[in-house]
Automatic annotation (TrEMBL):
Record key words, sorted: Membrane, Transmembrane, Transmembrane helix
Protein name: NADH dehydrogenase [ubiquinone] 1 beta subcomplex subunit 2
Keyword Cytoplasm listed: no
Organism of this sequence: Aplosporella prunicola CBS 121167
Coiled coil location: none
């Protein structure tokens, strides 16, 4: 039969430390800037990306 599970943090073998607030702030800022850039590029050349117009047709 199986033995008992590991003792300690609720029986789970992995302990994840809390994230520092500075890292969370930078992660949120970088994620937001990524989405702003993607939406900006979609606005500028989204039709070419979706195949609705050719980029060489001016």
């Amino acid at each position: 039969m199986a033995g008992h599970g590991p003792a300690g943090h609720g029986g789970h073998p992995i302990h994840v430390h809390p994230v520092r607030p500075l890292y969370r702030f930078f992660a949120t800022g970088l994620g937001a800037s990524m989405w702003f850039f993607l939406m900006y590029r979609a606005k500028k050349d989204g039709a070419a990306l979706m195949g609705w117009k050719h980029p060489w047709d001016h």
